[in-house]
Fold this sequence. Notes:
Radius of gyration: 39 Å
Low-confidence stretches: 5-11
Order of helices and strands: HEEEEEEEH
Helix content: 40-55%
Strand content: 25-35%
Shape: extended
Structural class: alpha+beta
Number of strands: 7
Amino acid sequence: MSSSGPYRTAYDADDAEETAAADDEQDTGAPIAPIVRLEEVAVSTGEEHEDPILDMKAKLYRFDKEGTQWKERGTGTVKFLKHKESGKVRLVMRQSKTLKICANHLVIPTMTVQEHPGNEKSCVWNASDFADGELKDELFCIRFGSVENCKTFMATFQDIVANQEKQEGSKEEDKDAADAAGLLEKLSVEEKKEGKTETESKPEVGTDKKDEEAASST
């Protein structure tokens, strides 16, 4: 059964246009060169010389002293990164979409992390942060999706602090040992100099004895 009237004409026109568009979209097999050739560019994150210790999703807050309230810094990934040469560990957090740095500070032996009162999914700590390009004393609060993740973060944080304390203690011991070795070496050199002076003074004593014998014989 065929239809007539303006509806048939309109549908036929639409079918004709779609058929023509489909013909235009058919691949002719001819090579098409790109108008603009893009080259791969290596993007540096500053983390190339560090090994990740922990990598977790979280939301970070900082305490605004002037407004006496918590302000959100961003939601993203928080990491503990250990430098391959120095062994120093820093905490770095970036926002998920923009990758803007929310926190960037070293984990040092004097730091402490503790659970936020009234919220088992959150914990707080103080740090000298460099996220804004200058050192600022910040009070941070970080919230995780589960209590387990928060406990894992806190345990890792505490382990890093303990290891940093050991490294600092080892460096102090090495420094003390080096100082002691330098002192012993100095004393040894001084003793050698004194021994050399005594050895050089012996012929003079012998000469005086010969002069005394010659005087007594006359």
